[in-house]
């Protein structure tokens, strides 16, 4: 039986199984869902076992458990490590969901549920692909390992120590992840670049109490004046980051890279219309895909201080706050960048204001050479199933664990995504287009065979 | 009997009466206290009647009632209009009060209650001063009118139309108000300047939705970047307001005015220590009392946008907000200032950001020439009772009704305050020092006789 026929035959059964998994509210961020996390881990490990995988383990961590499984009976063949996660994002605001987030529903060829595409649905494809090959051929064309975590949505803090400690056990020739998206329906993409991330929280303090703007206004420092002038100093008036040395380690775009970006034929006018913007904005001299794919950023994610209620309050606030994240590219070192920003802030703060800075996240950018045969074979697999060769793209986002997996296991990472950009990840009405569910199964089988 | 003896004799009775008034929670801001407002108005009108005042009226308004009363039997003598208010501020946070706000208590020569000094206690002095003269001398040395409102703590919106409509009825040679403070115990002051006030709310909009900083960061406008750079542009780096034409109508300080400020011998080092500041901050070339007493300001009272919760959120916010108030001096016109700020904001807003500006409050500054005989006689009265001549001071705050009274009635306003700067107006443990209760009664009697 061809794999098309096989997956056709078991389609309803597979969907029923996936729906079972999707009914488990395994929200990693909320401690009241700890039992659901355990239930989801149990479900995944059972599913791996019944697919024919061996050495299935649920490994407790300080946080949520990691699941390991393998099938290592293809001596001389490459070893593939499949990474995925069984935890999901919170579901607020609940009233915006058309059907409840943990009652999976198919409408118009799309499966709606929290986790449908991120990442339970995509992870499930790998389990079913392996199961299919084992059922049909009794053996796998590669050695395979699964490493599934339950903390991806809360920064994967317990996986890196586990990777460090079990490097040999997890050793692989390629890491395979399905947790990204096609460019658009029918247009597959393999992500070869992710930006790094670093973040900090800044507080400005002035007086020891809020002051009346009548009695004191004009004569004492105002924490809000101090913070807005400080934050404004972080960019020049062309949108370029004004922190000294910020761009060290940022590779200049080569003509080849610019051609690759141009191939995406990104429609900036459509984006402007979609977002209701008169104009895009960013560093001069770069297109939107270049700015988000290959340039670093420094973004204010939150700024607040003083009175926020209705009406007015004549107060001079004693403190003000900012939350800042940077996306990093190339060889920018997150620690170095945070230190440079901190130095800039200290140098530019207004007299009478005191600074408190907390450095939070630190993750390097990830890049891989698209010439790597592991990637080329993935593009081949997509081409055979979708009829279109996958483009190699740079994504503006950050998946810190990808850089960690690549570095610790010293293996190429293939991000073979089957989502779509509008599937409402982290938002109400998350869904997974079943066309990519079907093609995803075939692409994975094909890829494993091509290896 | 001397007035000292008279007030000594009736002291306990007077305090008991004032305590009655202070038990009424006439909080104008909270609609559930409307019956208490009515009760307080009733109490004041009864008190005016029994003091011997005539034509006592409780005048309904769209908001809380105004009380009028007069005693006009001194032909050829000046007419004094006493202004005061019987409403009080809310009392939160209640747990910080040592005794309940509406259970008046005397401790260490201070009467503790909400409204003790602002303004029930100070208003009460005028009623009892007039009563004393009528009891002792059967006639008053002046014609007197009372105009008492119940909305001072909520911006006096219904008094100005009443003043406009009853200009003739309220006509006076001097407006007398006790709703301010001495400089410190034993050091009386007459306020001859109040800053004006204008305010606006600014919203910056960018995209029609919050965006993910990975996918979009660096390529789209960020409402927080737009607002911080816009707000930072409102001042130069010396603390001077950078809005074109802002300082038009601001009188330069004359050597005489500077001498008057210097007489206050204000201790800036003590202020710094009290507020926990390394340094004061403001427009270059001016002392603290000059900055707050004679210079205009533009203060940010609130700025907010984006994520404010714990941890970080990689969001590019679609909107950001600012609340701004200006204190005005001299001939600055609030409408003109608001228009200039609006023009500045429109000119400086970053590409890709849209502005929404709402103008809110508009009140002119108040000033009076201290050479005015009505003020000189007030200083004389203080000198005779306190042994120290009152200083003429400029207050940084704004009491819009003072400028309105002065303008509509075309009369000098004498702010004869008997509070103290640390009596916790608008805060828990508001109190009134009874030394100034006693001296206030005598000063008012003396002033009415001097006129």
TrEMBL record, chains A, B:
Keyword NADP among UniProt keywords: no
SUPFAM superfamilies referenced in this protein's UniProt entry, alphabetically: Zn-dependent exopeptidases
Source superkingdom: Bacteria
Keywords of this entry: Hydrolase, Metal-binding, Protease
Limits of the Peptidase M20 dimerisation domain: 192-350
GO-annotated biological processes: proteolysis
Signal peptide: none
Pfam entry (one): M20_dimer
GO molecular function terms noted in the UniProt entry: metal ion binding; peptidase activity
Name of the protein this chain belongs to: Dipeptidase
The organism of origin for this protein: Paenibacillus lentus
